[in-house]
């Protein structure tokens, strides 16, 4: 699988590596690691992301500034990083193949080649195994990207199905030049003031349901405007609600600027990805999400709370 995918990349004329819409550290780290490796072997490569503004906490990643927001006129291969569904690529249909690199249990296997390993904590681990299988040397720049990908998607090693392989890989990446303290500081200690204000808003407005076991928060456009927060400031903010001692599940409903709502689900044990799938979303057992058209967010919240209750009663 890995050898065949690498061979196809080497045969391609122009590769577009795509990180998903509203990117996080895993999709950017995985994509930029591949960008580093492929440019070093002389391939014509573009890293594309549909969002004109990327989260600045990842601006230290090698290659970050070279990200393009307009597709090249011609390309024959797309490498998708950390996307469970094709629509998150935001790509038009065209005459190209897709290599789908991912780790989500809900992946739709939309590529001509699918490197999907759902037991891995991150797409970064899949990229690492791809490079290892093809005996590709990992540069310091690549190591920084892959370490960030793995660390970010596990909440810096707080959650996810981590095992000995996870720590074996990050240990090797440190030997290759990744600095754990520096990366953690860049990602976790540069929060914008707007996000801190958003935390304050959440702590003053969240609700508890089912005897305090489910926590919910609804962010409308006014909440973001009043705090000065941007959409990417909401990333993982829901984890604070999940950390409350008696809370087992948390729900965040975010009103989108363009209309509709983004829903993020978190849990300590139950499988929230099965709820996300009911709404054409996806994710992991304890972290999933989906998007819905405009609706009454309180009705949607109560609907999801009821679904979680039914799962816990089984």
From TrEMBL:
Transmembrane segments: none annotated. It comes from the Bacteria. It holds the Pfam family DHH. One of its GO terms (molecular function) is nucleic acid binding. InterPro entries: DDH_dom (IPR001667), DHH_sf (IPR038763), DHHA1_dom (IPR003156), Oligoribo/pAp-PDE_c-di-AMP_PDE (IPR051319). Residues 226-309 form the DHHA1 domain. PANTHER family: BIFUNCTIONAL OLIGORIBONUCLEASE AND PAP PHOSPHATASE NRNA (PTHR47618). This is Bifunctional oligoribonuclease/PAP phosphatase NrnA. It comes from Sulfurospirillum cavolei.
């Amino acid at each position: 699988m890995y050898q065949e995918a690498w061979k196809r990349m080497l045969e391609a004329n122009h590769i577009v590596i795509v990180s998903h819409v509203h990117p996080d550290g895993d999709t950017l780290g995985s994509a930029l690691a591949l960008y580093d490796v492929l440019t070093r072997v002389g391939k014509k490569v573009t890293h594309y992301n549909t969002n004109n503004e990327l989260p600045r906490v990842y601006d230290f990643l090698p290659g970050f500034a070279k990200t393009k927001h307009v597709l090249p006129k011609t390309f024959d291969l797309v490498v998708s990083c950390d996307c469970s569904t094709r629509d998150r690529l935001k790509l038009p249909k065209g005459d190209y193949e897709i290599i789908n690199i991912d780790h989500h249990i809900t992946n739709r296997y939309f590529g001509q080649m699918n490197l999907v390993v759902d037991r891995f904590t991150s797409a970064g681990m899949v990229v690492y195994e791809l490079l290892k299988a093809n005996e590709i040397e990992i540069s310091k720049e690549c190591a920084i990207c892959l370490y960030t990908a793995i660390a970010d998607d596990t909440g810096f090693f707080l959650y996810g199905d981590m095992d000995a392989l996870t720590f074996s890989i990050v240990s090797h990446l440190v030997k290759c030049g990744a600095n754990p303290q520096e990366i953690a500081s860049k990602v976790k200690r540069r929060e914008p003031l707007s996000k801190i204000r958003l935390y304050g808003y959440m702590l003053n407005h969240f609700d508890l349901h089912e005897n305090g076991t489910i926590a919910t928060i609804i962010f409308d456009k006014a909440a973001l405007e009043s705090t000065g927060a941007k959409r990417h400031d909401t990333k993982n903010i829901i984890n604070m609600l999940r950390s409350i001692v008696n809370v087992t599940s948390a729900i965040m409903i975010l009103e989108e600027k363009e209309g509709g709502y983004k829903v993020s689900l978190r849990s300590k044990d139950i499988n929230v990805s099965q709820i996300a799938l009911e709404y054409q979303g996806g994710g992991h057992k304890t972290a999933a999400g989906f998007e819905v058209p405009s609706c009454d967010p309180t009705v949607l919240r109560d609907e999801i709370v009821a679904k979680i209750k039914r799962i816990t009663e089984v």
